[in-house]
Recover the amino acids of this structure.
């Protein structure tokens, strides 16, 4: 495969709603316990977007911070990619709403729907446009308002998800030693119904019956996704590093999708790598799907743990099924 190493992330941002939902809050809603949620998932609390605000609001906040940190003006953007499965509307795309708010009038805009792997897909797409020389400045957002699609009567899912947004500015660089090195994008649609929203699309349009049967909420087969996730992460990690004749221990940081702390710990122990190489935000934010990785990236930058020259792998998995990763030299 052609070496792809000339797209760098020059700015990051995040937007986290203020409202905290603790495990104790959920104990009052469904038959669950703080002990069960912490021991099975590692989640202690998650954030919920206030009524009256939407996906585009969180996207805008994260995007403005990323643009400011990159010192890029929205008017310079060539393309806006929003990875999300919880857009403001079926149509138009959230990226178009964001484009108008930012007044990024030169930019094309599209949403990318790849479940929790959405940010990895979007970053890989951005990299292609930059690598080809077509574009030089692209905004990539990973954002979800999952609490609006969560069945608050289903204890097997409502304890897991949260709202949040992360954004990055991707730019072309002449520096051959930095940037995205390679990526891996995979899917297996045979697992489509392991994590899906049955109604509200063209397969089953909204009706009184679908609403009464609570079919507009997420349904998940957690056990099957868990087993798939562990294998998908390890396969992707080895695929990314072996193509560069490297080993997992050569990585300075491995930013995994935050779906379950047990998945992260399992991978870490299996690879025998130290804890500090694996950023964690699931304890505070729950599973924010497409947003987990860009938020983690932003938090690691702010904390000074993610530094220029670091070899970083980002790996995600989710609905579709989809999975994949990006390897980059920060
Ligand atoms: O973002 C990408 C997609 N999502 C994922 O990657 C999620 C992957 N899966 C998981 O993280 C885990 O499978 C879950 C956290 C979703 C579930 O954990 P688990 O250890 O696989 O539990 P389980 O589904 O096997 O359920 C064990 C028991 C069941 O009771 P019985 O049948 O043994 O009596 C469930 O009914 O736990 C029960 N249970 C709960 N109990 C208290 C399920 N949810 C809850 C709950 N509180 N919230």
């Amino acid at each position: 495969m052609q070496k792809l190493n000339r797209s760098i992330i020059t700015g990051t941002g995040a937007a986290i709603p203020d409202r905290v939902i603790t495990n104790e809050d959920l104990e009052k809603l469904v038959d669950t316990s703080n002990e069960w949620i912490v021991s099975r998932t590692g989640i202690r609390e998650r954030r919920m977007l206030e009524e009256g605000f939407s996906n585009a609001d969180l996207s805008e906040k994260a995007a403005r911070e990323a643009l400011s940190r990159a010192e890029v003006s929205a008017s310079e953007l060539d393309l806006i990619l929003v990875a999300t499965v919880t857009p403001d509307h079926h149509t138009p795309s959230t990226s178009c709403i964001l484009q108008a708010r930012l007044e990024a009038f030169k930019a094309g805009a599209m949403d990318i729907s790849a479940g929790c792997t959405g940010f990895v897909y979007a970053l890989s797409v951005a990299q292609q446009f930059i690598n080809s020389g077509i574009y030089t400045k692209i905004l990539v957002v990973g954002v979800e308002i999952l609490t609006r699609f969560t069945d608050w009567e289903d204890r097997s899912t409502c304890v897991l998800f949260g709202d949040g947004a992360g954004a990055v500015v991707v730019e072309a660089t002449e520096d051959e030693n930095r940037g995205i090195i390679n990526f891996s994008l995979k899917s297996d649609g045979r697992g489509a119904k392991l994590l899906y929203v049955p109604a509200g699309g063209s397969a089953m349009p909204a009706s009184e019956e679908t609403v009464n049967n609570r079919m507009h909420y997420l349904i998940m087969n957690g056990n099957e996704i868990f087993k798939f996730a562990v294998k998908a992460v390890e396969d992707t990690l080895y695929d990314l590093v072996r193509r560069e004749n490297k080993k997992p221990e050569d990585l300075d940081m491995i930013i995994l999708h935050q779906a379950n702390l047990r998945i992260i710990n399992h991978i870490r122990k299996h690879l025998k790598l130290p804890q500090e190489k694996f950023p964690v935000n699931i304890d505070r934010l729950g599973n924010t799907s497409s947003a987990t990785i860009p938020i983690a990236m932003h938090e690691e930058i702010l904390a000074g743990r993610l530094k220029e020259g670091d070899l970083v792998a980002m790996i995600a998995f989710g609905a579709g099924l989809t999975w994949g990763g990006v390897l980059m030299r920060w």
About this structure: Residues 180-329 form a domain with the Peroxisomal Thiolase; Chain A, domain 1 fold (CATH 3.40.47.10). DSSP finds eleven helices and 13 strands in the chain. Residues 32, 36-37, 40-41, 116, 155-156, 159, 195, 222-223, 225-226, 229, 259-260, 287, 289, 318 surround oxa(dethia)-CoA (CB under 6 Å). The chain has a mean pLDDT of 96.
